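Allow me, if you will, to draw on your knowledge of protein folds for a short while. I have a record of one protein: its chain in single-letter code and its fold written as discrete structure tokens. I should value your view on which stretches of the chain appear to form regular backbone elements. Thank you for your consideration; the sequence and its tokens are set out here:
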Amino acid sequence: MDRRSFFKHSFAKMVQTGNDIIEQKAIEKAKGWIRPPFAEQELDLLINCSRCGDCISACPHQVIFPLPLKRGADVAGTPAMDIINKGCHLCADWPCVTACNEKALVFPINKIDEKDEKDEKDSTGETENSTETSVGSAEDKKRPDAQDCPPMAKATVNSATCLPYSGPECGACKGSCPIPDTLVWQNEKPNIIQENCVGCGLCREACITSPKAIEISPIVINSKEQPDRNLRTQENV
């Protein structure tokens, strides 16, 4: 049994013995880090992820890093993002997701199907040309747009440290957000529309204040408690 199979088999066996308890523990621990785009729910990610590091190597901006063993053998080697220090660029080709062959990072099936259907309806021309287009763009059809990315984290503006809220003009984060109608300016002050935000952290990366005026906290599915604001980064893992 190779290393990838060992991790998947071992964790899957643990889950079979006490699914509810293990799932709750996984959710609680996940308050301390942020997973890459299109990550499965925490327990599914831990089961599927082989700790191969392919998604980490594929990230062109070096935002993804492996969680260390001291965070627990169950999460060691799994991918997390250092959004506190670097923003996720929501790359058009989603290299981290396409590099994952283990279904730990995976595009939603319904989004893929909807995009395929739309492209087929919009396709015109000769049958031969249509076939070539379909084959040539097969991979592109499977790649959602940036705004289709499920929320990875929550970004909020801290008015106590954000310069425009205290008087001086700034605008350093203007134009940094890749999602339309998300980072908006009202009376020359930035505001983040939460229902649109995916938590990429590019606005925080652009922020020039110290400490940063844009705060990032993880989104933990099925957890009613407050997230751990002491996020694990490459510096404090």
Notes: The CA atoms of residues 46 and 75 lie 7 Å apart. Residues 124-140, 223-229 have pLDDT under 50 and may be disordered. DSSP finds ten helices and six strands in the chain.
